[in-house]
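Write out the 3D structure for:
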Amino acid sequence: MFPRAVPAPAPPRTYTVSELLAEVGGALRASWRDIAVVGEVSRWDLRGGHGYFTLKDRTGSLNAIIFASDLARVPFKVVQGLEVVVRGSLDLWAPQGKFQIKASAIEPVGAGALQLAFEQLKAKLAAEGLFDTARKRRIPSLPRSIAIVTSPTGAAIRDILNILRRRHDGLSITIYPVRVQGDGSAADVAEGLRRLNSRGEFDVLIVARGGGSPEDLAPFNDERVARALAESRIPTISAIGHESDVTIADLVADLRAPTPSAAAELVVEKKDALVRRLSDCGGRVTRALRARLGLERGRLTGLSRAEGLLRFRYKLREWKERVGQSLNALVGALERRPQASVASLGAARKVLANFARVVELARRRERVAGLSASLEERMRRLVERRRERLSQDAAKLEILSPLAVLARGYAVAFREGARTPLLCASDVRPGETIRVRLHEGELKAVVGERTSPPKRKSARPERTDAPPLFDFLFEEKPQ
């Protein structure tokens, strides 16, 4: 019996690359249509309004993309290192065969999206100095024209108008109607602030909204509203929500009111209280003026009765007489001065007419200039001859200098501490310390052996003292 032959397996279907990627991509999109993935954003890049990023955990990473339309709905700024939950669908990008997730929403892990957006914007604007107290302006005490940016149908505007009418009727109030919640409300509020500033006829600008959830107050945490408040030339008051609600608009505005009603109370003082304050101030000013006038009147009366004031008349008469005498003396001196000047001028003319040698001044001046130039030339030649002679004498001295002798390799030896040079080897003993003067520097040496030359008669007597020319060689130098 022979075994039956095993049929060969059928070959697998052959795909093109595009077919395989299309089939895998379709399977992914069908099976993984709505998923949520948590991870850390390790790379974030904006290109053409779309966000390209990577999600990672300890052992893996996943490419992700979020299109501009979906990214516009993310209230916070996605940054690298932020842990998020991404919701979307899996996909395969055919041109590079990359597996990725198409995100439709991004939520931060831990804090809510609105709170994270609030903290990010708050840190950014604080770094730019928009919250600094130094840039906040004082609200006018008596505003005549007030502008309000709020919803025309909300309870906030009714509370503000009631309080303003009750405290100080007759004010000019302008209401700029805007949406205070929902899509586009932040743009409406920012536009209203800029429009009112362009008119430039208001003393105070109030941004108001009643209480609500964090989502309802989100337009007042928008960067556009914050920058419009910072750019406002009109002092601003922010009255958003309740006292516990703090928004970016509250931090940027010149003054924060805990509620819209409180904003109306802060901006306008009660009319009757103002009138009473003015009356009190007028009374205090009147009493102060009367008291000051009484003091000054008493002082003037005392001065009018003073002895010094009585003697002033006599002093004034004396000064008048002295001024009259001085004036007469001055007039007499001025009258005599022209005559004296005429006499002096005549004498000067007579002297000049008799001094005929004055015409020789120009010729003598030229002669003096020539003599001066000749003297300078002679002095220059004399100095050059003296300088040349000095150079020759210096060269001769250099030839005779003992330093020149030392420079040719000779040396001078003398005992330690002595100034007299050694002329004979017999003048020292073995083991004695001597100093040897060279051309540059000195040497200390110990005599080990000496050799005395044969004595010969000399026509010249031996010198026991060093020549004066060598004295400076043996001066003690600091060690």
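DSSP finds twelve helices and 13 strands in the chain.
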